[in-house]
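# step 3/5: fold
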Amino acid sequence: MHFKSIIFIVLIKLPIAENNVAFYYYLHAPTMIINLRLGLMSELLKTLNNVRTLRAQARECSLETLEEIFEKLSAIVEDRCKEAEEEREKSEERAHKKLEYLKMLAADGIEPAELLQGTASSKDTNKKQRVPRPPKYKYTDEKTGESKTWTGQGRTPAGIKEGLEQGKSLEDYQIK
């Protein structure tokens, strides 16, 4: 049997309150893509989880169709169980490795908190090591009368901005 061209009706005929029309959910066999009309995945799951509804719908299908659907669902469940088992094994392995590392640290007399403190302080020292840029421009703040400097980066100070608007150039403010 050629599965690429076969589309199965998935045992579901849900009456939806739009014009009392029964909508069908289709399952494309080779790719297991569910094409749900009206995007009612939650309704599909509710129906699949209801034994009475499944039995009623199963009466309308042939035994061959039910067996095919059962095989596919069994394969999906088996794959899901394998994935869950792999995740559990990974989790156990990770916990075992953590315990080994803690034992190694304890044997060397190192507290795990010390490792975290070392990383936090190295980040702070990198920020403190930055050398401030030397000022390039000197101007007088007209409001306070103070002499101030500017590196040329960031927003232009109000004192220099006012001078530029009056026709001065940045070279007039440059520190020589």
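# step 4/5: annotate
The longest strand covers residues 7-15.
# step 5/5: archive (pending)
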